[in-house]
Amino acid sequence: MKAVSHTVEQDVADRAVLVSLVTQKQKKNEELAEYSLYELVQLAETAGVAVLDTMTQYKESKDTKWFIGKGKVEELKAKLEELGGNTAIFDQELSGAQVRNLEAALDVKIIDRTQLILDIFAQRAKTREGIIQVELAQLTYLLPRLSGQGKNLSRLGGGIGTRGPGESKLETDRRHIRGRIDELKAQLAEVTRHRTLHRERRKKSGVFQVALVGYTNAGKSTLLKQLTQADVYIENQLFATLDLTSRTMTLPSGKEIVITDTVGFIQNLPHDLVAAFRATLEEANEADLILHVVDSSSDMRSEHMRVVAEVLEELGAHQKEQLTIFNKIDQCSQEEQELLTAPGEFLKITAFSEANLELLRNTIQDKLMGDTKTFRIPANRGDHQALMYRIGDVLETDVNEDAMVFKVRLNKEDYAKVAYQLTAYEEQLAQHEAGHDEGENQ
Predict the structure, then answer these.
(1) Considering only CA atoms, which of 288, 354, 297, 370 is closest in space to residue 321?
(2) Domain residues of the chain, as ranges?
(3) 379 is in an annotated binding site
């Protein structure tokens, strides 16, 4: 496990001690608990927090009142006072009562993992859809915790946990908050309707759709940029890009497809976020092919792959055609590369190798277009000759007596819709030729 580095900047508004609770059940996989805390440090720094220190409490089960127990709360208070901290961030989700109790005892801002992730999303959302989804997720999270939040959210004049809907909205009554949630859901439904229309237009035009999915910071945006020369924001941090980005990519055959970068996944992704971002993540559901991008250099890549698989299953996209992309192999030794494996087909690449990118483009093409098949179409069947150009890429054409011969790399889905027609005409042509040959022999 990589060591946790702490940065302390006195002019940063939020100076925090990070706290993790490891129960008896979680202790069986202590490495995962340790990584979760390491990830919390990354999340905090991404949100602009100065991380002063970390604390881990080992306990049989969580304390319903204090979460980490009264004694550990006293220890945390002393550490905050010693280091000049004004925020405590917990690696697990807290109840409203626990937040109020901890705030009263520690007299600092209390933030949990869910609220921290929501705050990062609020910072990163740029499109109308992203902004709506973030506010919806924040309000859904905050509604049952409304009581006693005023002091917590107004403390120190802002910082993490206060972006998005803002203090003024949270001071209104629950009825107003529920009304705002209903309004946001209606707006999101309208945005989703427009997105669905765009998808349907793409499908009717015969354009293939490919979705990039993966754990946050796996290199999806870098891969999108290298494959399509797209102008996308890239940074080595969690959730560097939040809003959906779609770009056109040209396959080696010359056919254009649409490739979409989706929001990165993370372990313990808040359920409110999964629900609110369903419209965005449904790009994976509508895709003809899912590219699951994995950070090969991460010690926790197996866990990352498990998290992505779980979210895809929750979305109903786990049955889709998938290709696993082990990215960043340039950061792995030869021995580490040999250990990389996944169910189904997979590639090992670096996004900065043109040879690797060409291999990926060819593999995507093979996955989407399928096999190459030769068709003999009667010369007087212009409609079926035109059909050749709709079921795939025509590679060669030739004339054979009274028939046209087409060599086509197939689009599996489009070919399946008309295969019976083409088979019937091939049989008719064969019968016609057999009768013609028999007449000549006589």
Answers:
(1) 288
(2) 15-175, 206-369, 372-441
(3) no
